[in-house]
Each structure stands twice: as C-alpha cells, then as structure tokens.
Amino acid sequence: MTTAPAAYAQVLFVGPDLTHGSFAELFRTRLAALRGTRALDELLDSGDGYALLWQRVQDSPRPLLVIDLEPQSSSAHVDWLRSELAQLDGADGIFVVSAMGRGELLSVDAACALIDQPELHLPCGDVTPLPASHAWSKIPPHQYRVLVCSGPRCTRRGALPLWKSLREKLKAAGKLECAGGVHITRTQCQFPCDDGPTLSVYPDGSWYRLRNEAEVARLVDEVFVAGGQAAELLIPNQ
After folding, report:
1. pLDDT, tens digit, for every residue of 13-62?
2. Residue 65's closest CA among 112, 130, 30?
3. Are 183 and 177 in contact (CB under 8 A)?
4. CA 219 to CA 13: how far, in whole Å?
5. Residues 3, 127: Cα–Cα separation, whole Å
6. Nearest to residue 108, comparing CAs of 48, 23, 47?
7. What domain count does the chain have?
8. Which domain range does residue 47 map to?
9. Domain check: are 118 and 73 in the same one?
10. Would you report the helix, strand and coil content of the chain in percent, each value rounded to 5?
11. What's phi and psi for 207, nearest 5 deg?
C-alpha cells in the first residue's frame, strides 16, 4: 500500500451541513481559528452531491488529503469514495481519511487531528476494483421491510446504537434478511421527531419508537418472531 506523505499540498473537508446553519457557523469559525481563514475554501458541502468535490480534487495540487466528514459513513461509503477518486488524474497523490463509525458530525478539532494521523490515510491510486458480480446486487429475501430513522434528532437520541442492536437481535433470532425475515434500511428524517428514535414497518405501515435495548428486544420478539404488534411501542397516527 502506498505510504501517506509527511505533508500535503492541499487538504479538503467534505461532508453535509458545512455551508449553512448553526453547525456550519460554529465549524467555520473554529476552523478559521485553527488553520486560518484561507482554510474556509477547503470546505465542501456534500448535501447536494459530490460533483463539486470531483471538480475541486481535479483542480487541486498533489499530494491531496480528503477528510470525509459524513456522519453516516461506513466502509462501503469509503470504498465508493476512494473508487470515484481513483478515476481522476493524479490519483496516486490522493488520500482519504474518514470519521467512519462516529455516527455524528465531527468537531473541528477532531477533524483537524486526522491530518496528523497518516496511519489512517488510505490511498486512492491502488484501490481494489469492485467485483463484476456481487451479493449486494440482489434484493435479499424478506417478509418485513423496516425503515429506521437516522435523521439528526433520532441520531442524537441514540438511533445508531439501537439500529446495530436491532440487527444483532434479528440475526440471533434467525430473522435477518432471510425468507420470513426482515430487511432493514436507514433513512433520513421520517417524523415524528419528538417520539424518536422511530422506525416504520412494512407491509402493514406501523410506526414504532425505540428508546433502549429492552424495547428493541420486545420489538423483535413480539413483531418479527411472534408476528404480532408491540402495542406499547406503537406511535399513534394522530
């Protein structure tokens, strides 16, 4: 694997909510204090897609570090980001570091600290190509479709650890992505936020709130194993 350089000619920060809103205001103020006002030109908001990032990377000097600030990032997201950057000119001089797995918007200090952790920097010049045929190209067998809210309010209320717990308990019960089982998808805000964390279950369209591990276990046992409803967890349709 290509070794990360000791210093970069350019660093770019990419993620949602970096242009407008209270988080952007605080992030930009702190970044300017740490790296100077010129660093504000290094911020790229991914809320409307990644077209601006591709263009900025193409026009930036090498070596270049892209700091991924996507709060819902995952290994698959990082693989995709690297594979896209690998197609640009000068990919051998492009590196990516991710805040993967944090489940929240990263603070400026933590984001800047990633610059000085070259052991976490992944090169884009020698990315393993995706296989031509893979398991994720097929719809997994399932009976229930569960949409778990990963919007900002539900995330602050602990939606991500509860989502992981739900997957673990479904897998232990033999009900994860199998015939008669459950297929889970995380979404952006579903509402109603004040009852969150929330999830919706199809085909019946019921909405539930989950607030702790005990409620996750109850949902799995009463809905997906027994085939009923967890009445006390239902969110009324008002």
Report:
1. 998 889 888 889 999 999 999 999 999 999 999 888 899 999 999 999 99
2. 112
3. yes
4. 39
5. 13
6. 23
7. 2
8. 10-123
9. yes
10. 40, 20, 40
11. -115, 135
